[in-house]
Amino acid sequence: MAKLILTLDNTLVREVPLDKxxxxxxxxxxxxxxxxxxxxxxxxxxxxxxxxDSFLEDMGSTNGTLVNGQPIKKHILQNNDVIEIGKYKxxxxxxxPAQGAPAEDFEKTMILRPSAKAAAKPxxxPxxxPxxxxxxxxxxxxxxxxxxxxxxxxxxPxxxPxVAAAAAKPGEGQPLAAVQILSGPSAGRELDLVKNLTTLGKxxxxxxxxxxxxQGYFITHVEGAKFPVVNGKTLDAQAQPLRDHDxxxxxGVKMEFFIKx
Length: 261
Known about the structure:
The chain is mainly β. The protein has strands at residues 3-8, 11-17, 22-26, 33-34, 45-50, 53-58, 65-67, 70-72, 74-76, 82-85, 88-93, 110-111, 177-181, 190-192, 197-202, 206-213, 216-223, 229-230, 233-234, 240-241, 246-250, 253-259.
């Protein structure tokens, strides 16, 4: 489990395990990490931890938040990063990867762009790869590559080549799920949620993660002033379980979560 080592003038104050998905840092007593210092805002910063990844966000503090001496608004924490809040320092110590969840078992952020005027027509589904005429036992037939429903920056055409997602072994007894884009230039494209953590959204605007757990799939807000909307209801800071055919609104794009039959 990851943890923070809080120090003041090189003197250890306390160690804080990141055992919650969302931990607030600030001067108010309601914060999980309370720092009683006038240089620290009431709700100064927030750390969201999903599986083995921790995301730091400055909550619009008066004096700002530094990581390794650099001011940040949002930052993905790396092992031994030093967070500076006022005169206090918090050293981030990453935990060991959970068994069955290697560090590379994550999706990259899928960048979404809302439609400028009207939703584009759904992209044609890729043709299934034909089975080889005589496949040897040691050479199994290739599997079709799923389309990534994210968009590259505006300079790249919407009909970008499909990107292959490395497959991970599905959880035992757990059905595979996917998301399908419903609006915008990538409408109709699908992404199989085969990874333990899939990041969706638009960095700097709104980002959420879908985690694959033994209990099912959950969506959690990570970045942005606005929280994701599921079936017309705005989420809070806690992880929300996803159910078949839930409609997610994120970064101006609608997508449907569904269980693959």
